[in-house]
Amino acid sequence: MKQFFCLMGLLAILCTAQVQAETVEPIKYGNFESWVTRHITESSVIGGQKKTIYAIGPTQTIEGAKPYHNLGGSPWGSCNVYAKVMGVVKTSNAVFPDTHGSGRCAKLTTMMEHVKAVGIINMDVLVAGSIFLGSMQEPVSSTKNPYSKMEMGVPFKKRPKYLQFDYKLNAPTGDRTYSSGFGSKKTLRGRDYSEVFILLQRRWEDAKGNIHAARVGTGRMRFGATTANWVNGLRIPIWYGDITQHKGYQSYMGLIPKEKSYYARNSKGKMVPVIEEKWDDANATPTHMVLMASSACGTAYVGTIGMTLWVDNFALVY
To answer: For the range 183-188, what are the long-range contacts, defined as Cβ-Cβ under 8 Å and sequence gap of 24 or more?
Structure first.
């Protein structure tokens, strides 16, 4: 009996040591308690309304149609943008501050932006609320190749076990809509999903300024069911190396196709696609982290209007 209690005591000590060894590292501004508020007056030809758009960063207000650059060391970009298309100033805002308990969170929603000026422009653009680690290049001048306006990823050399965050989802039923701003809107059969993912890459640049990448770590999850309440402390495991044989592998977790590459700025200051070429060794050290939360998944300009994802308290667990 004495040996039994000694064994149980030893196990308790080992379990306590394991819990104490775990480290939770919040991502800067990932609690969404502070926001930059931007007031921009759109061109008179489309109504001349004063619009408010938000950025994730230190609390302050910016007046006027000025290109935004991340402030206060914030690593977060979003789909909220100031655009100037064919000389027409327009804004888009699909990410909002909202409440979570006694604090704030980020609300990401899929919506249709309408831009109409007789004889000049007539566009309906489906926008999915998205936040990501990186920055948006403003002013946006067209709807062509949206990823080329987003610098995706930040320098990162660690190997976390999980991505942790809180979330809530409102998922309307029904098919998806495609609308890029030119041509007719289309209805696409099948439901949409919101998603959150973290990709760890080892990047390198060749002599011509092209950026290549190998996938070091992968954590990706899609959400399709409305939640009654907040789900707090959800953890997405990060799997290392080639995960195609992992029992939890899904096709959307694979390498990024070349035609859907994310972009980054090379050493010459030019935005170029990051070509993800291969799976890296499971013990490799990454150079960059790509992290995104979105109210939609898949192709740009495709989603279910009204799909809304709330997120809060992003952190990495080691």
So the answer is: 185/124, 185/126, 188/302
Q: What integer pLDDT is reported at residue 15 of this predicted model?
A: 53
**Domain annotation covers residue 127:** yes
Omega before 75 cis (within 30°)? no
Question: What are the beta bridge partners of residue 139?
Answer: none
Q: 288-294 and 308-317 as β-strands: parallel, antiparallel, unpaired? A: unpaired
Note the pLDDT of residue 1: 52
Q: Is 2's pLDDT higher than 80?
A: no
Query: Is the pLDDT assigned to residue 28 strictly greater than 70?
Result: yes
At residue 151, the pLDDT reads: 97
Q: Provide the strand spans (E) within 128-256.
A: 130-136, 150-152, 154-155, 162-170, 176-178, 186-188, 194-205, 211-223, 231-237, 239-240
For CA atoms 163, 172, 150, 137, the dihedral sign is negative
The number of folded domains in the chain is 1
Which residues, including other chains, have CB under 8 Å from residue 194's CB and lie 6 or more apart? 108, 169, 171, 222, 223, 224, 293, 294, 295, 296, 297, 307, 309
Q: Does residue 5 register a pLDDT over 50?
A: no
Is residue 169 assigned to a domain? yes
